[in-house]
Amino acid sequence: xxxxxxETVLRTxxxxxxxxTAEDVNDTRAACSDELTRRWLxxxxxxxxxxxxxxxxxxxxxxxxxxxxxxxxxxxxxxxxLLGTVGLKKTDWPARVxxxxxxxxxxxxxxxxxxxxTRALGEWLLGEQGFQRLQLFAxxxxxxxxxxxxxAGFQKEGVLRNAGYIHTGRVDLYVFSLVPDDLSGI
Length: 186
Prior knowledge:
This protein is an alpha+beta fold. It is 31% helix and 33% strand. The protein has five helices and eight strands; from the N terminus they run ββαααβββαβαββ. The protein has helices at residues 25-33, 35-40, 49-65, 113-128, 143-151; strands spanning 10-11, 15-18, 70-76, 82-92, 97-104, 133-139, 155-166, 169-178. An eight-stranded mixed sheet has the order 1-2-3-4-5-6-8-7, sandwiched between helices. α1 (25-33) packs across α3. The longest helix is centred in the N-terminal third of the chain and has 17 residues, at 49-65. The radius of gyration is 16 Å and the shape is globular.
């Protein structure tokens, strides 16, 4: 059996990061149907209620139990409303390296939600979980995602040419990283 992350809930001053549930289906469908979200992520087109239900009740949980990573519903700490997601994927357990990915619901953009959630996840991974590197890839045209990375304390390392895929084709990706030594600056 592969190593897996423990079922976890993370809290920040404003947010609760928790596993997805069936209550998140409608907001997930709405967020993943948004034009800006779809521009940078190769999501199914159209993104249906069935896709959202599968993600919220099955796929996101199986990715944890398979050892691939862990995925959190980013919610408002007071109201519980879904604001986005942040998660780990492509985890290399022997090397203690993982990759972070995220999207922000249209109704939560511009409030620093994804920066806060990404920072909390990075601190948990590199601190409590003892990992040595967290990677983040952002299309060179996706300036919002690049701003999240930089504000969350990641360092830009370079460009991976033709390394990403979106609905319109191949894109270059910036690679960012966060390592334990970076945490003192966050």
